[in-house]
Amino acid sequence: MDNLNFQNEISRKIIKSSNKYIEDAELVDKKVKESNAIYKGKPVPYLYIPRIFQKKDIETIEKLTKDIFSIVNKTIKLYLEEKKVRKLFNFDKKLEELIRAPHYYDTYVPMGRFDVFYYGADYKFCELNADGSSAMNEDKELSRILLESKPLKEMKDYNFKSFELFDSWVDTVEEIYQEYKKNRNEKIKDKSQINIGIVDLLDKTTKVEIEEFKRYFEKSGYNCFIIDGRELDYKDGDLLYKDKKIDIIYRRLVTKDLMDNYESLENLIMGILSGKTCIIGPIKSQIIHTKKFFQVLYDDEFRKYLDEEEIKFIDNHIPHTKTLKKDNDWESYIENKDDYIIKPVDYYASKGVYSGKDYKKNQWEAILEESAEGEYIIQEFCKEAKINNIIYDKGKLKYNTFNNINGLYMYNEKFKGIYTRAGMRSIISGLHEGYSMASLMVEEK
Q: Where are the alpha helices (DSSP H) in 225-291?
């Protein structure tokens, strides 16, 4: 049985005997509300049944990880080496300077959450998130709670297991830092002497999550500080926080926020350019974080650098993407509105995203007209990945079909875990009445 049928069977079984599960669902709800599964100060909305992945799914995901990173790394390398490729992205000079700054370790994208619509054997990418990737804590808390739920406990022929995303990140940071120091011919100090700064704009970050990462770094023996990037000092190439030299920065600060606050983050910017602090991750990750990345992959000029297999992979797994402008396809965008979605080139958390399915023709045309004045891409609307699941609401279990999307966590180019979101609208996010789900692996005993 494939993973979708496996999961749907669990949901159908529960709803047929829903009275048996009400008490457990109520207990799960209480645990979630008392947990650290928090987003913007509130408990996350969730679904009762986790998103379950079998061994063959993990093998598919590990293979796609290698395939997409081959294209990611090639694109970033071409950007650094080829003026024609840099022109396709058309970043401003300040951002380009930061992208081209040396970072002294191999990977260009130390952490990513690559969002995919996973259909089973097949899949389609939605977008790639690099800097600022988040929601590990939501997955950890929901998985911890739902592993103890009655539906899973009843399945005695199976072992369910959660993904580990915190200790593995500490190990990844350690691995990258060792590489950084080796490439700079510098000795590595004892952990107790190494200062790690988790850097973001603290009025925008998910505090409960970065506090959890801080706890794991400290548990491993490091000194760790949560730092608003505007509070960093700069001296002789080093970055300091409250007179302490920072050795490693775990950058949660997304590049858009960095560039929007360029003047107030001047010390951090000088530290990035100096290279004397290990910045995890480098600003080079913006090349694939921007929505322009998919657009460039479909550009005829860029495709001259790709081989046949790379082009085939892109055509099969990455939605066709173009700059939104009044070109020969404009009438098609309007007439076939359900086939398209538009996104701002550089935003996050689904802000400014519009799907043609959600609007009447005249409304959609007005949105296109207005958005074409700014920096937007227009993209093929991907087929929804659907699952059956259950919501606990006011003492009742409600069965429904949901669209879902899987965020694949990549640490140092290796697959480490999954963050699943679901919803009943065409855009799946917290802004659009979305739900979080625990993501679990399953094996027969």
A: 255-260, 266-274, 286-289
H helical segments located in 184-253: 207-219
220 alpha-carbon distance from chain centroid: 25
Q: Which of 265, 377, 267, 361 is nearest to 327 (CA)?
A: 377
Is beta strand 51-53 parallel, antiparallel or unpaired with respect to 439-444? parallel
pTM (two decimals) = 0.96
Peptide bond into 229 cis (omega under 30): no
pLDDT top residue among 32 and 40: 32
> The tokens of 194 are what?
């190494």
For Cα atoms 17, 19, 22, give the angle at the middle one, nearest 5 degrees.
120
- Rounded CA separation 345/319 (Å): 15
What length does the chain have? 445
Structural tokens at position 395: 């003492």
CA distances from 441 to 110, 264, 435 (A): 24, 44, 19
Q: Give whole-number Cα distances, 169 to 149, 293, 377, in Å.
A: 27, 26, 32
Amino acid 378: pLDDT: 97
Cα–Cα dist 74/67, whole Å: 11
Give residue-wise pLDDT tens across range 173-225. 999 999 999 999 999 999 999 999 999 999 988 899 999 999 999 999 999 99
Tokens representing residue 84 in the block = 């024609």
CA 419-423-429 angle, 5° bins: 60
SS3 content of the chain, % helix, strand, coil (to 5): 45, 25, 30
Could you give the dihedral angle defined by the CA atoms of residues 266, 272, 273 and 274, in that order, rounded to the nearest 10 degrees? 110
| Residue 355, both tokens | 């799907």
Q: What is the C-alpha separation between 304 and 126, in angstroms, rounded?
A: 24
| Rounded distance between C-alpha atoms, residue 406 and residue 384, angstroms | 12
Angle ∠(83,255,422) on CA atoms, nearest 5: 115
Query: Is the pLDDT reported for residue 170 higher than 90?
Result: yes
Give CA–CA dist 318/306, Å, rounded: 15
The answer to whether 131 touches 285, Cβ cutoff 8 Å, is yes
Report the pLDDT value the prediction gives residue 350, as an integer from 0 to 100.
64
What is the rounded distance in angstroms from the CA atom of residue 23 to the CA atom of residue 28? 9
Domains annotated on the chain, with CATH: 167-285 (3.40.50.1760)
